[in-house]
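User: I'm putting together a teaching handout on how multi-component assemblies are represented. Below are the sequence lines for each component of a complex, exactly as they appear in our records. Could you produce the 3D structure of the whole assembly as structure tokens, so the students can see both representations side by side? Please keep the chain order the same as the input.
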Amino acid sequence: MDDDQLSRVFAALADPTRRDMVARLAVGDATVGELADPYDVSVQAVSKHIKVLADAGLVSQSKDAQRRPCHLEAEVFDLMTKWIERYREQAQERYGRLDSLLAEMRGDERRTDHRNRQQGAAS
Amino acid sequence: MDDDQLSRVFAALADPTRRDMVARLAVGDATVGELADPYDVSVQAVSKHIKVLADAGLVSQSKDAQRRPCHLEAEVFDLMTKWIERYREQAQERYGRLDSLLAEMRGDERRTDHRNRQQGAAS
DNA sequence: AATGTTGTCAACCAGTTGGTTGAAGACTGA
DNA sequence: TCAGTCTTCAACCAACTGGTTGACAACATT
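Assistant: Of course. Below is the structure of the complete assembly, with chains in the same order as your input.
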């Protein structure tokens, strides 16, 4: 049930524009227009991005006349951090213990290099 | 430049099936077939999922005859954690300080409830 | 009341994603 | 060598995504 929100949170942050907006909102609240300003896209597109962030629970919006100030919700980050830490610890614990040892005893070459797959331009 | 990988990592983890596989791999390495077993999809689909995880740098694959054992790469989690922590701290620091105070002085109702937007079935 | 500002909704479009099936590559074992 | 196992590649399809434009709701100002 939380799983669904976790999916939305990760999906929301998979977009560099949206991550950028989160960075901007970490500095302070901002209206949709203010958030749209630095980008070369329509306000409608930005509005959609904010909706995605809001649906993920990362952002809340309040009312100020026509304006809709956006506020970053820090608590949701904990949900992510918790998920990550669980498996990071689990994996790191395993690593350096007997797992890689056993692997070498089995004789397969561990850790094929995956780092040279693609080097796409940064956004 | 790292931004691109960060996008891939978040996108990879946005899928519950892939998160599940990460959870499985945290316990120990597994072949594609072993990973595919619990799911009701074709092996090809699972192979694609693994490719996504590998492209994100979350998983590496080695060779063992026809088999392709998958191994969880814990280091990449740090990339994510770093990004998250940066903005979480920044936002939480702001929260409880003068920001929300000023907001109340401006008289707008902060924090519209976003939690009742949708309650989709868990995956 | 009329106008301008701010933001969202609706419809549309191209590109991506997650699934399928079929074929083939790579290896083991009889 | 021939059959069987494990995995990936290729082509295809429906659904989703991120963008667009146009309309309009809500509010402030004149």
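A couple of points students might notice: Residues 15, 17, 41-42, 44-45, 48-49, 52, 65-67 of chain A lie near DNA strand D (CB under 10 Å from a C1'). Residues 76-102 of chain A form one domain.
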